[in-house]
From TrEMBL:
Coiled coil ranges: none
Protein name per UniProt: Protein FixA
Keyword Transport among record annotations: yes
A single MF term (Gene Ontology): electron transfer activity
Organism: Rhodoplanes elegans
Domain Electron transfer flavoprotein alpha/beta-subunit N-terminal: from-to ranges: 22-219
Keywords: Electron transport, Transport
Family the entry assigns: Belongs to the ETF beta-subunit/FixA family.
Assembly and binders: FixA and FixB form a heterodimer.
Pfam families: ETF
Function: May play a role in a redox process involved in nitrogen fixation.
Superkingdom of the organism of origin: Bacteria
């Protein structure tokens, strides 16, 4: 069994800057991390590998510095890492990114061994579109299982996989044939601690580095800004609220409860009265909302 996990090196969300002309994220000088959602995909792939055997290949597209994230993934126990890097990829939107990654995955299958499962996180924290995973599946003709919360069973002999995915109103239990692409939800597992042998192996490992040409991309106009039809017209930070939070104080006498008893009541009557007095329309808004359910 061969599993490919697509990860992305993203800027620390607390320190993101946007280029004033191109409206793309400026990554220079900003600390980077592995996209948090991708870690759940990495762990699930490693769990399946541990249970059924096989190989886990980590793939990322980015600048040469993205090698750091690949080595980090190797410390968790992944078997191989591939870096897709080329100046032609700069400024890629989700369409161009999914094209480059899909081409690279196809090349991985031809170079190493056929790919049975592709994992991604549900989305990235810098784009938040959740489009790249489905885009890869469409380009490669893979069955796609999005927002998966649990991999229930894997039958390699029967070439099928059972999963649970979160949907509006509940959970769906699905079964599909391999090969497939799975996007993992957050909180579905807990990434393992890398072992010392894996950390040492990761430090010495040779990262497979491919340019656009190496990955088999013949038409580079489908990559980077030239291959990205998405136009960002404006990027701005939310306007800070001018109204400051107001502290509503209720005395102990008003609460009519001792400190030991206060935990038994979520909202004492005196506090509710104080809230309604501060916002007279609140009671009517809550009543209207309750009627809608």
């Amino acid at each position: 069994m061969h599993i490919v996990v697509c990860i992305k090196q993203v800027p620390d969300s607390a320190q993101i800057r946007v280029h004033p002309v191109t409206n793309t994220i400026m990554r220079q000088g900003v600390p980077t991390i592995i996209n948090p959602y991708d870690l759940f995909a990495v762990e699930e792939a490693l769990r399946l590998r541990d249970q059924h055997g096989g190989t886990v290949t980590i793939l990322t597209m980015g600048p040469p510095m993205a090698e750091e994230s690949l080595r980090k993934a190797l410390t968790f126990g992944a078997d191989r890492a591939v870096l897709l890097t080329d100046r032609f990829f700069a400024g890629s939107d989700t369409l161009a990114t999914s094209f480059a990654l899909a081409t690279a995955i196809k090349k991985i299958g031809e170079t190493f061994e056929p790919v049975d499962i592709v994992f991604t996180g549900k989305q990235t924290i810098d784009g938040d579109t959740a489009q790249v995973g489905p885009g890869i599946a469409k380009r490669l003709g893979l069955n796609q299982l999005t927002y998966v919360s649990k991999v229930s069973a894997l039958d390699l002999a029967g070439r099928s996989i059972d999963v649970e995915r979160r949907a509006e109103g509940g959970v769906q239990a699905l079964k599909t044939a391999l090969p497939c692409l799975i996007t993992m939800l957050e909180g579905t597992n807990e990434i393992r601690r890398g072992s010392l042998p894996d950390a040492l192996r990761a430090a010495r490992a040779e990262i497979v580095t491919w340019s656009a040409k190496d990955a088999g991309i013949e038409d580079v106009t489908r990559c980077g800004l030239r291959g990205s039809p998405t136009v960002v017209k404006r990027v701005f930070a939310p306007t800070p609220r001018s109204e400051k939070a107001k502290i509503i104080e209720v005395s102990q006498a008003q609460l009519k409860a001792t400190p030991k008893e206060q935990h038994k009541t979520l909202l004492p009557e005196a506090l509710i009265d104080a809230l309604f007095a501060h916002r007279p329309t609140l009671e009517e808004e809550l009543t209207t909302l309750a009627r809608g359910y």
